[in-house]
Design a protein that fits this description.
about 10% strand, six-stranded mixed sheet, alpha/beta
């Protein structure tokens, strides 16, 4: 049966595990304690707030809803499959969100067809062990300066993701169709990760996909903004290259990853208050 991600109603989701890379870890959305929040944490709150009261009460603000986030920045698809999927299966949550392949796609010479084949094997494995697996498409990067030239590869991979979702009856978090993230205010200063508002928009769309009532429209229009002059655009480009592009290239040349020595921020299924 074809997958209708916008109208799917969720079953009771009492536990949720997120797996992936920096996008799911929440890079670009720092909290007051310095730890990243991100769309997955925000989705967990929306899920917990709408969990029916059907269990024995416990001493937490969100009842007995439990959440784990295994995502680590910089991880490639095969690393996510090896490190995170076994743990996600062990935790046995009601819902897993699985976003992977983006770091593979942006690397020179990678084949989106090959990446998609490996993704499908991982989805098949997860779908056989977890009641609901939501998978995520790529963004439409036509307006993202550093990723604009990769739009064709990302579109090909996105088409594969939707086909995989149909084959395994997975809900789809379709970021390609999320028009609000085309605005530059949805992106962090590094132009690779979402801003806090961008993460919020994604969390709202993910909740919609699962059939939740959401407090705001993820595609609502941004407030009007004065156009930027050529000098301002040029200055921003120079600052971005110095602060973000050059360090990123340096890590690639040294064979380093932003996720080296970084551990999952929520490795266990725990109440949100923990």
């Amino acid at each position: 049966m074809a997958n209708d991600s916008r109208s799917r109603r969720h079953d009771v989701i009492g536990s949720y595990t997120a797996i992936g890379d920096s996008f799911t870890e929440g890079v670009g959305d720092p909290g007051p304690d310095g730890r990243y929040i991100g769309w997955a944490d925000r989705l967990a709150i929306l899920l917990a707030d709408q969990l029916p009261v059907c269990h024995a009460p416990v001493d937490t603000a969100h009842g007995d809803f439990r959440y784990a986030n295994l995502a680590v920045r910089g991880r490639l698809l095969d690393q996510i499959v090896a490190e995170q999927i076994p743990r996600a299966k062990q935790l046995a949550p009601d819902l897993v969100t699985f976003c992977a392949g983006g770091n593979d796609i942006i690397r020179p010479g990678t084949d989106p067809d090959d990446v998609a084949e490996r993704l499908e094997r991982a989805v098949a494995d997860l779908a056989g062990a977890v009641p609901t697996v939501m998978i995520t498409t790529g963004f439409d990067t036509r307006g993202v300066p550093v990723l604009r030239h990769l739009r064709g590869k990302i579109a090909t991979y996105t088409a594969h993701v939707r086909a995989i979702a149909d084959r395994y009856d997975c809900p789809v978090l379709d970021l390609w169709s999320l028009r609000s993230v085309q605005d530059r205010r949805a992106w962090d200063a590094d132009r690779l990760h979402l801003s806090p508002e961008g993460h919020t928009r994604v969390a709202l769309r993910a909740a919609q996909v699962l059939g939740l009532d959401v407090p705001a429209d993820p595609d609502q229009l941004w407030p009007p903004q004065a156009p930027r002059g050529a000098f301002e655009v040029r200055r921003d480009d120079i600052n971005w290259a110095r602060e973000h592009l050059v360090p990123w290239i340096g890590r690639r040349l040294r064979g380093e990853s932003s996720g080296d020595h970084v551990a999952a921020k929520r490795p266990d299924l725990l109440p949100l208050d923990h």
